Amino acid sequence: MSKYLVIVESPAKAKTINKFLGTDYVIKASMGHVIDLPRKTLGVDIEHDFTPQFSVLSEKVKTLKELQAATKKAEKVFLATDPDREGETIGWHLQRELSGGDRKFYRVTFHEITKSAVESAFHNPSEINIQLVEAQQARRILDRLVGYMVSPLLWKRVGKGLSAGRVQSVALRLICEREQDIAGFKPEEYWSLVAMLLTKKNILFKSELVQIDGKKPEIATRERIEQIVAECQKEKYTVRSIEKKEKHRYPTPPFTTSTLQQAAFRQMGFTADRTMRIAQQLYEGVEIGEEGPVGLITYMRTDSVKVSAESQSEARKYIAEKYGQKYLPETPPHYKSKKGAQEAHEAIRPTSVFRTPESIAQYMTRDQLKLYRIIWNKFVASQTMPALFAVTTVNISAGPKYLFRATGSVVLFKGFLAVYEEMENNGEDDKEKVLPEMSEGENLTLKELTPEQHFTLPPPRFTDALLVKALEEDGIGRPSTYAPTIITLIARRYVERLEGKLVPTNLGKVVAELLVKHFPDIFNVEFTASMEEELDKIEEGGQSRVEVLKEFYHPFKIDLAKAETEMKDVKKQLEEKTNEVCEKCNSPMVIKWGRFGRFMACSNFPKCRNTKPISTGVTCPRPGCNGQLLPKRSKRGRTFFGCSNYPKCNFLTPDQPLAEKCPKCQAPILVRTRRGKRVKCIAEGCGYEEERQ
C-alpha cells in the first residue's frame, strides 16, 4: 500500500516526475478536466447567482473510478496539476470528488519539472487557491452563456454547426475588419531619390535624399521627381557634416507565450497551435538517454518575463565559460512585464542552460529541437551584454536646397548577438555597412541619380503571429487562449489559412457582421479587454464572481432578446451559384454552408434534397481508382483532400491537388504545398519540386 498519491494532468508529466519521488509515491494522470459543465445543456442556474451545475465527463468516468480506487489506498493526496487557473480548478474538482475519510489533500505547484523544483514543491505544499478557481469558473460561465445562448441564433439564421464565443468572435471581428481595410485601401504614390557619389579617393557610396529646404521631402508625382532630378544634376555635392557615435542595442526579454508564438511563426512557420503542442512536450519531458524523461523548459503558458535568481546565476556561469567575462553584465538584467502579468510565473526558459541544444539534439524530434533552440538562445541572449555599434552619419549638401544622407555602422562588440541574431527591434539587422573615409567640406562627384517609385501598402493580413500580437496588445484573452482561439476560427470555417495568412471566409464575414450588429456591447474589443481585467480582479480577490456575471448578463440579456426578433435569416445570402445542374430534377445546383463546410445542393430544396460534395476536379492517382479528390476537414479544422471512394480507397494528401502530370516521373498529379509557394510531386523518391506563384 502506497502512502502518497500524486495526481497530474498528463502521462508524460507523470513519467518525468516519477523519477524524482520515492517508491512511497504513486502517480496518476487525470488527462485534463474530469468534471465540467454538461455538454448538452446550459449547465448554469442563472436565477440562483449563476451557480454552475458540474458533472463528470462521460469519457472520464473510468479515469475517475481509477483515481477513487488509488485515493482509498493513500494516506495523502498531492494535487500536482498545472500552475494556472485551469490546473487549479482541475485540482479543486478532484479534491471535492475524492475527499472522504481522514486522508489529507495538498496542492503542489512547480513551474519547471526538475528535481529541485519538484522536491521543493513537495516539501512546501499548500492548499487550493480558491480565488484562482473562482476566476476560472467566471470565465467558464461567461463563455458558456455566450456560446450556448448566441450560437442557437446562428443555427437558425445562418446554418447548423456554427458557434459564437466571447473571445473567438472578437478575434473574428478583428480579422474581418482588417480585410475590409485592405479592400477599401487606396494606394498613394510617392518617390524617393538615391544618389551614387564618389569621394576624392574615387570610392563609390550610396546616399538618399532626406530634406528639401530643411523639410522632409514629400514627392507624389513623376513630374515633381523629374524636376528635382534635373535640379540636383546641376548642383555641387559637399560633405556638410560627419557624425560618429557609439550605439548600444539591448537584448529583449526571454519569451512569454505570446512572443514565443510570434517568433516561432516568423522563424519557422509554426502555427500557434503547433508551437504550444511542441512546447508542452518540452515542458512535460523528453527522453534524454540514460537520464530518462527530462523537463527541458519552464511552464509555457505565461505572460511574465521574470526569471529566477538561480537560473540567472547558472546562465552567467555558462556565458563566462563560453564567451568570456566581457559578455557578462555587471549585474543580472531585470525585465519589466506588461501590466497585469501573472508574476507568480516565470518567463519561458530552459530548465538548465548547460543542456545546450547541440548536446541533446539526438534525443529530440526536428520540431522539438527547433523550438528548444530558439527558447534556449533567447534566454541566454537576454542575460548577455548589449551589442555595441559604431554608427557614422554623413550629411551631404547638394546646393543650398537639397540634403542627402549616408549612414554606415560597424559592430564593435557583438554582445548578445553572439548568441541570438533574430531580426527584432523594428526590423533592424546587424549587417555591417561601412562608409568610405571622408572629411567635412570635401567635394564629392555625382555619379548617378536614381528616382524610385513607391506606393503605400495596405495593412497586412493577419498571420498567427500578428493576430496573437494584436490580441495581446488589446488585452483580449490570456496566454492559454491564443492558440485555441485560432483553432476554433478555422474549425468553424470562419477563417482559412492561405499562404500563411488568416483570411475570413464569406461565412466568417456574415457571422461577424451579424454578431457585431446585434451584440455591439459584447463582441467589442474594449468590452472584452475590460472583462479580462475583471477576471484578473477575481483572481486577486478584489472582485466577486457573482458581481461580474451579473454586470455582464443584464445588457447581454437585452441584446439577446432584441436579436431573437431582429436578426434576419441570411442562408440565401451565403449560397453561391454554379454551372452544374441537378441530375435528379434538372434544377441549378448551388453551393451552401453546412456543419461540415461547403457542399453542393439542389436549389429546388426542399422538393429535391439532392446534395453532393464539391470536387477539386482532380482524379485520384491510385491505379485503378476513378474517384474524385474532395476537400475534407479534420477534427482540428485542418483541410485535407481524400478520395470519394473512401473507405474502399484511403488515398489522402494534406496539400492542394493539381490535375498536372509530373514532368520528371509522369506521376498523375502534383500538389501545391500548404504555404502555397511550391508545387511538388507526390510520387515517393521522385523529388520534383518547383517554386510557383
Describe the protein.
It is a single chain. With 693 residues, the protein is an alpha+beta fold. The chain has four domains: 4-128, Rossmann fold (3-Layer(aba) Sandwich), CATH 3.40.50.140; 137-184 and 460-566, Orthogonal Bundle (Topoisomerase I, domain 2), CATH 1.10.460.10; 189-250 and 387-455, Topoisomerase I, domain 3, CATH 2.70.20.10; 269-382, Topoisomerase I, domain 4. It is built from 17 helices and 29 strands. It has a six-stranded antiparallel β-barrel with strand order 9-10-15-14-11-16. Strands 2-1-7-8 form a four-stranded parallel beta sheet, sandwiched between helices. A hairpin with a 6-residue loop joins β19 and β20. Mean pLDDT is 91; it is low at 423-428.
Whole-number mean pLDDT: 91
Q: How many separate structural domains?
A: 4
Query: How many beta strands in the DSSP annotation?
Result: 29
CATH class of the largest domain: Mainly Alpha
**Through-space gap between termini:** 66 Å
CATH architecture of the largest domain, please? Orthogonal Bundle
Task: Write the CATH homologous superfamily of the largest domain.
Answer: Topoisomerase I, domain 2
Radius of gyration: 31 Å
